[in-house]
Design brief:
Blueprint: H1 3-11, E1 19-29, E2 39-50, E3 55-65, H2 69-78, H3 80-102, E4 113-117, E5 122-126, E6 133-134, H4 144-166, H5 179-182, H6 184-205, H7 211-218, H8 222-232, E7 242-244, E8 253-257, E9 263-268, E10 275-277, H9 280-290, H10 293-317, H11 327-336, H12 338-353, H13 362-367, H14 384-401
Antiparallel strand pairs: 1-2, 2-3, 3-5, 4-5, 6-8, 7-10, 8-9
Protein name: CHK kinase-like domain-containing protein
Pfam family, one: EcKL
Organism: Nezara viridula
């Protein structure tokens, strides 16, 4: 997108109407290699002339669809950019109106949407870093303070989504089934395949005490895994359900911190895989993908209680008239998803936390149906046993009990 077109876009945007002319435009990667899988994230820095004649620097974020085997598979199956634009222009806009209606002063949970160019497959968004927001480093899972703020934010988001549904502004039938619970290709490539590499890593470098666990996991067929995962997310019609974010993990959250480094505000980014299900799906995905496993083990009960309080108090604040889920309802939903979360964590967390940028090659994974593309050395690194060992034992126990 050249600067002349960008001038037109900004002149029509309510985000910064003071910009009159762009003098200079510079584009550079906003994230290092390996930090985003389905999009290329660019930072656009502009030197501009304001309405009062002064020169200023402004920045924006551009998301451009990736090319390649995996990206095209994701795009074709999920219509990622179309889904995200719809969330920004419909759902989040209505949530903003809802906050205004009820005087919610906590601030939005998203960034400002600027423009979508279908021809260029580019989404232009507010640069949250310019407002003091940053991601938590991918290789350092979130601590308890970040987890508490994130779960409070999930509660607010789910509550607003449910109120919009009650008002007829969200249709539960308007979203595709969640791929991680329903699509055989994705479950094979992103759940079953990495565990096979983990098993090889266990046998290669974990020591004899792990041989029994490796043997038991190697006996799990793809068909058995598929059934267990699908069953775990198949909630009945009496379950409290709402629109889920769908990909609420570390890289898709940005935090603002106070002078002591404590998180005080949070924004979700990347709304490409919204789906309709129990909100416990989002909570499980977050807890097992993003926070320090020791923090999760030691604080799971209180974190779920915090999420439930945020959800129900937000439903009350936004005038929801329907039946609210009890803490027991949420606990039962979380218990049902333990298998999904534990398998997801043990098979993928090492790839997420490694410093390596070659942990997995999604193009090769999808091209070979999971036979290639995962780096065995990732599962042999120092600290992997301490990181996932306890949950791996729990996963084997789940199979022994079934």
């Amino acid at each position: 997108m050249d600067k002349e077109i960008f001038e037109v876009v900004l002149s029509k945007s309510s985000q910064d109407p003071k910009i009159k002319r762009i003098i200079e435009m510079r584009t550079e990667p906003a994230l290092p290699k390996g930090e985003n899988y389905t999009s290329t994230i660019l930072k656009i820095t502009l030197k501009v002339v304001l309405g009062n004649g002064r020169v200023a620097t402004k920045s924006f974020i551009a998301k451009k669809e990736n090319t390649g085997e995996a990206a095209e598979q994701f795009s074709n199956d999920l219509s990622l950019f179309t889904a995200e634009v719809s969330v920004y222009t419909n759902i989040l806009r209505e949530m903003e109106y809802l906050m205004e209606e009820f005087g919610d002063t906590e601030g939005p949970l998203w960034c400002e949407f600027i423009h979508y160019s279908r021809a260029d497959s580019i989404i232009i968004l507010e640069d949250l870093k310019a407002s003091g927001f940053n991601t938590v480093k991918r290789t350092e899972p979130q601590d308890l303070d970040h987890a508490r703020l994130a779960l409070r934010s999930f509660g607010r988001y789910h509550a607003m989504a449910k109120v919009l549904e009650e008002r007829g502004l969200i249709s539960k039938d308007g979203y595709k089934p969640y791929l991680f619970l329903n699509d055989e290709v994705y479950i094979r490539n992103l759940f079953y395949a990495p565990l096979q590499i983990l098993i090889k890593g266990m046998r290669k470098s974990w020591g004899e005490e792990w041989t029994e666990y490796a043997d038991k996991l190697s006996q799990v067929s793809f068909e058995e895994l598929l059934k267990r995962i699908k069953d775990s997310g198949n909630f009945d019609d009496n379950t409290f359900k709402c629109l889920n974010h769908g990909d609420g993990w570390n890289n898709n959250m940005m935090f603002k911190h106070d002078w002591e480094g404590k998180p005080i505000e949070m924004r979700f980014v990347d709304f490409q895989v919204p789906h309709y299900n129990s909100p416990c799906m989002d909570v499980t995905y977050y807890l097992y993908s993003s926070i320090n496993p020791t923090v999760r083990h030691q604080n799971l009960k209180s974190l779920i209680e915090l999420y439930h309080e945020s959800l129900t108090s937000s439903l009350e604040r936004f005038g929801y008239k329907g039946s609210k889920p009890t803490l027991e309802d949420i606990n039962n939903g979380m218990e049902r998803l333990v298998f999904f979360g534990t398998w997801f964590f043990t098979s993928t967390f090492a790839c997420v936390l490694t410093e390596r940028t070659d942990a997995m090659d999604l193009d090769l994974i999808f091209k070979t149906n999971g036979e290639e593309g995962y780096n065995l050395s990732v599962y042999c690194e120092d600290g992997v046993i301490e990181m996932i060992g306890e949950d791996l034992k729990a996963l084997v126990k789940l199979f022994d009990e079934s």
